[in-house]
Fold this protein.
Amino acid sequence: MAQRSYFDWNATTPLRIEARDAIDDALTVVGNPSSVHFEGRSARRLIERARDQVAEFVGARSADVFFTSSGTEANMLALTPAIETSAGERPRDRLLVSAIEHTSVRSGGRFPRDAIEDFPVDSDGHADLAALRDALTHSSRPLVSLMLANNETGVVQPVAEAAAITHEAGGLIHVDAVQAAGRIGCNIAALGADLMTLSAHKIGGLKGVGALVRSSEAIYLPEPLIRGGGQERGLRAGTENVAGIAAFGAAAAAATRQMAQESENVLMLRNTLEVGLRAITPQAVIFGAAAERLPNTTLFSVPGMKAETAVIAFDLEGVAVSSGAACSSGKVQPSHVLAAMGVLPGLVRGAVRVSLGWGTTQADIERFLNAWRKLATALSKGHPMTAA
Ligand code: PLP
């Protein structure tokens, strides 16, 4: 196959070598982690080592890490009125979510529809904290959910400030750190988060593994989504995905060691990409450019472009990018994130997301810019592939 450049790290990352090794090891272990014999204890050891590694990654205690089947499931598990900080508490009566959350948060978990309220973001894509403060007055027992970084724009959210405001109002805060993890610091205590969601496949682990992390044992979730054999201390029944969890731990440990260096390299390459992009198309708009963003993400548009056709044109040039958020149905939905930022529909239609990672090289950036030069020329001539 011709050489390709992968620029869709926010959709999923390649498997880290350390994760692959952990999978190979785990596949040689036959036991069920709930069994008491040697084989079972060997499998249990792999899971508990991974729990330690994920805990260290976010500065939590191992006992506060619960493995799930995905980030989506961790979000669903967290977003429930039944979160308690002391036994037998009244349920949470309101869920406040930012307008740019991932759909798994926007769907509201186990809250009834009429108990879910959005709070807006500004034109840079930052959560509007004054609006959050106001929304918090509508409830005596709110749960807030705010992502640490947005999956489309990469804009980093003011989570620590939101946590302080939420706690002052007697609320709890859940933080979806799926995109931020491995790219910027995610220390749960420093952020003031009560609950945090992680997903293995965004940090070099396998797809289909995630975790919900709580700040301390004082946060209690009495209602699991999946009941049965009592695995994950009763919070998530079902025999554990031992190889997937072991790989998650290994990926988290590698990210803990390497994040600073990786993010510095990625930022340098992303800056080169954006300088080149602006030189080729000065009219290009980079969303959230004025805000603090993840070092790896560029979401851009030019007037008159159609993202879905641009993605195909890039693909034909050996460059994998995405149009806004990846969507499982293959349907192209206008981005709710850009709509919430007040971006005009003509620009929303053309939004292309380019996301980098530890494997991105200068040669990839050049391939991207060459492809973009061709596309931009076609676009300027009103080529049917790209014109609106
Ligand atoms: N939250 C955010 C911000 C995401 O970007 C994603 C996936 O793209 C998820 C949650 C869902 O994670 P998973 O793919 O593990 O279900």
